[in-house]
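Structure tokens please, single chain.
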Amino acid sequence: MSAASEVALFGRVRTPSFASLRDVLARLARAGFQPALGGSALLAHLSLLEGGAVHDWDLTVDAPAREVWGAVRELEPRYAGSGGRHADEKLMLPSHALEIICGFAFHTPAGIVRIPARIGAVAGDVPFASPEAWLVAYTLLERESQAAALRGWLERAGADPDAIARLCAQPLAPKLATELRALPLRGAR
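Here you go.
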């Protein structure tokens, strides 16, 4: 992909190797997985990462790490199990500055909140994650600046009603569930 194409996807934000991202996306697709690119790359794609950089690629998949392992085995992944707030697993690919979050989920006082690897948009063959999903993730991680940026974007662009319904079916704190339900919905304006 040309530098101009990368700028179209991520603005002028510095990113790790785009070839590495495309390599892993292709491997996962060949193995039948539907990954979604989130984290700071999603923020950069939505022009919400001012003056920052994408330090690594964050892909989510709705499958356990043991199933995903075979698709990336040749890249020598490192396994990271759940811990702290995270109730998911990760396959870390240091050579690609990339992590695959398998079964994206968080421990909360009300139970485990599962964040689906839902694709919000595809641009340049890159499947970008749902902004609604990452709003919930950043809120649960207490990363307020990222959550606020996504909340503002969703207030302007409108939220996907199905994504909101799926997320609100999780054991979210009442305040977060109310905030999600209050977002304007796409097509409802």
